[in-house]
Protein: RNA methyltransferase, TrmH family
Amino acid sequence: MISKNTIKLIKSLAHKKYRQKHQLFLVEGEKNVLEVLDSSLHVTQLFGTAQFLENNSGRINKADIVGEASIDEIKKASHLKSPQECLALCALPKDNIIPAQLGTFTFYLDGIQDPGNLGTIMRTCDWFGAKTIYCSPDTADIFNPKVIQASMGSFVRVKAIYTPFAQLAEIATQSQAEVMGTFIDGENIYNTQLPEKAVVILGNEGKGISPELAAKVKRKLSIPRFHNENDGPESLNVGATAAIICSEFKRRKTF
Structure:
């Protein structure tokens, strides 16, 4: 059974200030819940139907508290239009430290606002083996329930570090990583030389890369359009852009 107070708590986790206050985030759906149970994340409470708990009896003991709940109870607590058989509350990770050396490839997200886009970027990075991304303080919160859903479990494997770009730029210089950015008028990514190490900035959905960060970019990258610019879309979705960039860097075996 899920108590009224717990339902109220779960509902409040849609908002970042309550996630921060309670130091918790919500995970819903069987795939995502099983991902956190198999990860190093701390699961404080787990609720599931009798069938779900029975089917996963060997994994649910990781949670501090396990409770049986009916589908109707889960629906009352859920943030989803079509709730599934389980949900979990997890402790927010404490680690937000930039490593002394960057890997060979990473993204810096400059004010990405749409949770679906952020989740898609995390899933894309997971697919291509990029295990860390960096985010501006005003980028959407990766522990937003909509981001968790869109990432399809990748949030447990792709680490997001929130930091002003100035701090990352210093480490990028020390790591000899080239700072690049995505622009309409940049170099064609398919025929330009790509560096062995790179930080690629992805800009806000509506405004693109901010002028302050654009000034820090050493090289501009562009994904060429294959249509008449007068009768096609003005730009690519940022999630699609991330996938193309990851694919091209990986194809060149730069990471």
Remarks:
- The longest helix spans residues 115-128.
- The CA atoms of residues 119 and 148 lie 6 Å apart.
- The domain at 4-91 is CATH 3.30.1330.30 (60s Ribosomal Protein L30; Chain: A;).
